[in-house]
Amino acid sequence: MSQQSHETMSTFIGDRTSHLTWPRTTLLRVAAAIVDRLYGWQTRAAERAHLAALSDYLLEDMGLSRLEVEREAAKPFWRR
Fold first, then answer.
1. Which of 16, 27, 33, 54 is the most buried (most CB within 10 A)?
2. How many Å apart are CA 5 and CA 32, to the nearest integer?
3. Of 44, 68, 71, 73, which is closest to residue 56 (Cα–Cα)?
4. Distance between CA 76 and CA 7 in Å, rounded?
5. Phi (first) and psi of residue 24, to 5 degrees
6. Backbone angles phi, psi at 75, to 5 degrees
7. C-alpha of 58 from chain center
8. Dihedrals φ, ψ of 64, to 5°?
9. Integer Cα distance of 60 and 18 in angstroms
10. Global pTM value
11. Tell me: the pLDDT tens digits for 51-75?
């Protein structure tokens, strides 16, 4: 293969790979954001369930009333 055809071929391949890099990177970022959001929702739901299971004594010690905890636990997992 001549030097010129080799350069043309590497330029063509380089252009193709750089063209594919941006969408893959974006796709990975979007996928990571989705996984992060799902993990956050799962964590929030588990924390609310755990809080609701605490005794009145422990809630009082933390400065929370049972009513406040019930309101928080009743929220959907996606709400802050």
1. 54
2. 40
3. 68
4. 58
5. -65, -45
6. -65, 145
7. 31
8. -115, 145
9. 59
10. 0.65
11. 999 999 999 999 999 999 999 999 9
